[in-house]
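Hey team,

Filing this mostly as a record. A colleague (T.K.) asked me to run one chain through the structure pipeline before their review meeting, and I want the input and output archived in the tracker in case anyone asks later how it was produced. No errors, nothing strange. Just documentation.

Input sequence:
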Amino acid sequence: MTLKPYAVVTGASSGIGAATSHALAKEGFHVIAAARRVDRLNALAASASGLDGEIEAFELDVTNQGSVDALAKALVGKPLEVVVNNAGGAFDASAVLDADIESWEKTYDINVVGSVRLIKALAPILRAHGKGHLVVLTSTAGHVVYETGGSYTAAKHGEKALVNTLRLELAGESIRVTEIAPGMVKTEEFAVTRFKGDAAAASKVYEGVANPLTAEDVAEAIRWSVMLPDHFNVDSMTIRPLAQAAQHKVIRK
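Output structure:
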């Protein structure tokens, strides 16, 4: 019996990660949906019933090396073809001079160091399979900075640098490396987490914006990139809602 190709999606318990897991399962992948909240992952796995592929829940904390090593051990010998490094987030909206150093450390550890942990652990499994695709979710915040976004923009610039360095270092191998950089995406948790649970402050981010991107929109960009022929690499894809022409140019009604 031929095993389905495997895909790992981190940060899969909600938002973009959950939508991406579902999109890849539709394409026939055996998706390892990895995150800390196992109850949500189990519900996501159940929702994949009837698709060409399936979703398997896996508890993962990208800030914990032992947790990442356990994931890698579980995948040894499996036909792993795709790794979507989506775990990340913003945890404050403070000016640099008001910086909470612990928040900066957390932001960097999850977005940048967590990405390195995961990629270092899983790239050898892609190599053993003979081909693969590393997809890293950055942000337009990794391309342009903005006020009160210092911790997040610094981390996402670091993550973008990681992706570009990795692509150079893997040149000549059969491993594709793609950066997906979304602009304004309205998900259930991102802004609420950034504003430490203040739903009113979070909602103002999207106030008056017609049709911000959804998690499913970003998942479609990932799915499309992954399903291209093996010789076709999307280096970087920047995606925004029509209402957002640039980081600081947002049309609000």
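Quick notes for T.K.: The beta strands are 6-10, 30-35, 54-59, 80-85, 132-137, 175-182, 236-239, 244-246, 249-250. The CA atoms of residues 119 and 247 lie 28 Å apart.
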